[in-house]
């Protein structure tokens, strides 16, 4: 995040602790309970609660009678008190979501990434779109905590720069965080797309069963979001999750690394489309057709029962399963969640095959079965994760959250 102070910086750590407690208690909490749970003095809880109520972030919701004496007033989160915006820059499509303070999607919007447009013009377009979304939703600017943007890696997270994402031509060393902050006037957080997707799963998933999982991201490219002990694994430069060079076939198309059989070349949507066109399963698209459109035609043909298309999907499932075994062995995760902009179109055929192959693989070390599932969040998962990241900075009581503004 950069630029300006925000409510958290003013409110400090105690406020974040209290807000976090209230957020996790949808039925409401009394001031006495908050003081008991946090160890903060009654006076501090009272002062912070008053400030949160005055700011419209928390509301008083009914009374609780606990034996003799005055009934206690319950405090609840006011979801419409604050908002965040999540943006996902995929090489073919830009997704926008407006989230309320509870992390629920108020509205979303998708627009194709214009071919040959410069980063500058796309960043300007993002700012215009964000302004339009806020206007349409009647959300004032001072109620927006910031913008989270998810982008393909590699990124320089410290500087907020996209380094040289392989599928985004012309986006070499683009200072995306600063440029978007300047264009929108909001603080901006930049996160690699796969990590953002994992954040969304943590936020909306809840419950202990999601302590350790991998998120297989299926977009224009592929990647893995990794969550270990409920924390997103980011690595030394925030670029963890690149699994594209795991070799899963002895032959295959030539990869940028000079080898053949790398999963990042074998299973991506444009490769499946190319194979289907080469073998006559689908006709070549019109000259300006997007991977998105071509992939939809391919998945429609597969859904209609084309044996050739189904064979391509079965090979894809086998390749993904082989890589999933390597990753689950390495990290001892017990669950792999699949999602991303292209996933839903092929999941019905591919997911059950992956589940079967992974758990039957003699190379699987895990003493527990690997659970395989679709993301419940849908195609907006990375954008929602980026928006959740902004809320997370604001709501999570951890010392690093205090460094929110630079
Ligand atoms: Zn490779």
From TrEMBL:
It comes from the Bacteria. The keyword Zinc-finger does not apply. One of its GO terms (molecular function) is kinase activity. Keywords: Kinase, Transferase. InterPro entries: ATPase_NBD (IPR043129), ROK (IPR000600), WH-like_DNA-bd_sf (IPR036388), WH_DNA-bd_sf (IPR036390). The keyword Repressor does not apply. Belongs to the ROK (NagC/XylR) family. This is Putative NBD/HSP70 family sugar kinase. It comes from Conyzicola lurida.
């Amino acid at each position: 995040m950069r630029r300006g102070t925000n409510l958290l910086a003013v409110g400090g750590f105690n406020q974040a602790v209290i807000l976090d407690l209230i957020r996790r208690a949808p039925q409401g909490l009394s001031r006495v309970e908050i003081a008991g749970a946090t160890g903060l003095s009654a006076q501090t809880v009272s002062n912070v609660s008053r400030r949160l109520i005055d700011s419209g972030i928390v509301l008083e919701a009914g009374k609780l009678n606990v034996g003799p004496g005055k009934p206690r007033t319950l405090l609840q989160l006011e979801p419409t008190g604050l908002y965040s915006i999540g943006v996902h820059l995929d090489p073919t499509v830009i997704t926008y979501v407006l989230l309320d303070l509870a992390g629920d999607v108020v509205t979303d919007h998708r627009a194709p990434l214009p071919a040959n447009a410069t980063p500058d013009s796309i960043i300007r377009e993002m700012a215009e779109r964000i302004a339009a979304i806020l206007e349409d939703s009647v959300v004032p600017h001072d109620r927006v905590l910031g913008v989270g943007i998810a982008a393909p890696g590699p990124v320089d997270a410290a500087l907020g720069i996209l380094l040289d994402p392989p599928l985004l031509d012309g986006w070499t060393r683009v200072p995306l965080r600063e440029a978007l902050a300047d264009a929108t006037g909001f603080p901006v957080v930049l996160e690699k797309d796969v990590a953002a997707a994992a954040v969304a799963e943590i936020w909306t998933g809840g419950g202990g069963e999601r302590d350790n999982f991998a998120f297989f991201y299926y977009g224009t490219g592929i990647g893995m979001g990794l969550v270990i002990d409920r924390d997103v694994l980011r690595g030394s430069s925030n670029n963890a999750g690149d699994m594209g060079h795991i070799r899963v076939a002895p032959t295959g198309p030539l990869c940028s690394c000079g080898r053949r059989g790398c999963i990042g070349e074998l299973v991506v949507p444009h490769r499946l489309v190319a194979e289907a066109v080469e073998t006559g399963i689908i006709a070549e698209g019109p000259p300006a057709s997007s991977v998105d459109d071509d992939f939809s035609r391919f998945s429609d043909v597969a859904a209609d029962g084309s044996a050739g298309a189904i064979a391509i999907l079965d090979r894809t499932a086998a390749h993904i399963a082989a890589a999933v075994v390597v990753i689950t062995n390495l990290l001892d995760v017990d669950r792999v969640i699949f999602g991303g902009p292209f996933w839903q179109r092929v999941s019905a055929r591919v997911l059950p095959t992956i589940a079967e192959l992974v758990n039957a693989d003699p190379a699987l070390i895990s003493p527990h079965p690997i659970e395989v599932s679709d993301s419940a969040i849908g195609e907006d998962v990375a954008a929602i994760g980026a928006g959740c990241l902004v809320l997370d900075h604001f709501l999570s009581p951890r010392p690093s959250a205090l460094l929110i503004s630079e």
